[in-house]
Amino acid sequence: MMSGKVIRLGRIFRKTTGKAVIIALDHGRRHGPIKGIEKFRELVAKLVNADIDGVMATPSMIEKVADIVAGRVAVVARIDGTGTIKSPDETDDRLIASVERAIRVGADSVSVMLYPGSEREVQLWEKLARVVEEADYYGIPVLAEVIPRPPNLPNKLDPEAIAYGSRIASELGADIIKTLYPGNKESFRDIVDKVPVPILVLGGPKSESFTAFLSMVKDAVDSGAKGAVIGRNVFQQDDPVKAANALAMIVHKGASPEESLESLS
Fold first, then answer.
1. Is the predicted pLDDT of residue 265 greater than 90, yes or no?
2. Cis amide prior to 141 (ω within 30 degrees)
3. Over pLDDT 90: what percentage of the chain?
4. If you compute the radius of gyration of the chain from its CA atoms, what whole number of angstroms results?
5. 161-209: per-residue pLDDT in tens?
6. CB 139 within 8 A of CB 3
7. Distance between CA atoms of 129 and 173, rounded to whole angstroms?
8. Where are any strands of DSSP class E within 115-193?
9. How far apart are CA 22 and CA 137, in angstroms?
10. Within 13 Å, how many C-alpha atoms sit on residue 239's CB side?
């Protein structure tokens, strides 16, 4: 592995645990100004005081908080995002920035979306391959977000579908996979065993129960996940910093959901 990737991955994954807690803040590119991210600088200024390892945002938004994140957390740049919740095809996620631009704004990694099973699967794999080639040239890691989609993979929580997409993404050169937890430990362990790069579990829409959400993350980490990339289940909580710290206790200290919440009360 190139020294640039080694150094940048070392900023993302905590040396003491080998795991990472990344707060995803890139939702505005797909959903617009949803609850929690309206005042972006204020949110980021709070989150950098939590026990997190990184944040994810689009290059333009990274530029707007560069002074806040500098020297505090790693930065993952989301460089695709043309598929929105109002667009004709939400899976039509084309590039919105180059790898070079991500590096110019200070990113430690770039991230792209993949929808295996969708009608655009071929184009999305090609996008990943092109991004990997450019990223390899500059020595920056690629995080691939893998979410199975209809018509060919209608159940996004199907372990075989998650393994299928995650393995192909790693075969095409992704350095980190962000994907779903299928709902049970044995299935997730099998996915981890079949994918030769670190897997970070995603959070999805805000859960009705924060404790249940933390339990999901705990099960994923216990089953081999190298951490989590979480957005709405942190920034849509009443206290995002406490939510992020609870998440970090599970990922980095092996705490139970109850222990993590009790310590923050």
1. no
2. no
3. 97
4. 17
5. 999 999 999 999 999 999 999 999 999 999 999 999 999 999 998 999 9
6. yes
7. 7
8. 142-146, 176-179
9. 25
10. 11
Q: How far is CA 255 from CA 84, 219, 221, in A?
A: 36, 11, 11
Helix (H) and strand (E) counts in the chain: 13, 8
Instruction: Say whether pLDDT at 255 is over 80.
Output: yes
Q: For 224, left (φ over 0), alpha (ψ -120 to 50), or beta?
A: left
Task: Give me the phi and psi of 196, to 5 degrees please.
Answer: -85, 20
Query: What are the tens digits of pLDDT across the range 61-117?
Result: 999 999 999 999 999 999 999 999 999 999 999 999 999 999 999 999 999 999 999
Element of type H or E holding 191: helix 185-194
Q: What is the mean pLDDT of residues 228-236?
A: 98
Q: Name the token pair of 70.
A: 């500098």
Q: Which among 115, 97, 116 has a CA at the least distance from the CA of 107?
A: 97
Q: Report yes or no on whether pTM surpasses 0.90.
A: yes
All structural domains of the chain:
3-264 (3.20.20.70)
Return all residues near 1 (Cβ < 8 A) that are at least 6 apart: none
Are 223 and 26 in contact by the 8 Å Cβ rule? The answer is: no
Query: How many residues are there in the chain?
Result: 265
Token pair for residue 143? 């995080």
Tell me which residue has tokens 């609870």.
246
**Cα dist from 112 to 46, 47, 55, 80, 126, whole Å:** 26, 23, 15, 6, 12
